[in-house]
Amino acid sequence: MRNYCVMCVFFSTGIRKTKLLNLRIADLNITNDLLRIEYVKGNNEHYVPLAKP
After folding, report:
1. What is the mean pLDDT of each run of 10 residues along the chain (53 residues)?
2. What phi and psi, each to the nearest 5 degrees, are found at residue 16?
3. DSSP string, 1-53
């Protein structure tokens, strides 16, 4: 089940592997189906929508 969830997030968001491995539960916004991704350069963060399974 863990591997399935990882692959679903990976394919639905298109984020890089290193960003996927550094995700925390706090980065997930379940009510709006968004995933917060932090970028090191410039301290930017982006919100990526999650696809419905």
Report:
1. 86 84 88 84 80 71
2. -75, 160
3. -HHHHHHHHHHHH---HHHHHT--GGGEETTTTEEEEE-SGGG-EEEEEPPP-
CA–CA separation, 20 and 43 (whole Å): 17
* Tokens 């290193």 -> residue: 18
- 11, 5, 10, 13: which is closest to 50 by C-alpha? 13
Q: Residues 6 or more apart from 8 whose CB is under 8 A from it?
A: 51, 53
Which of 45, 40, 35 minimizes the C-alpha distance to 12?
Answer: 35
pTM value is 0.68
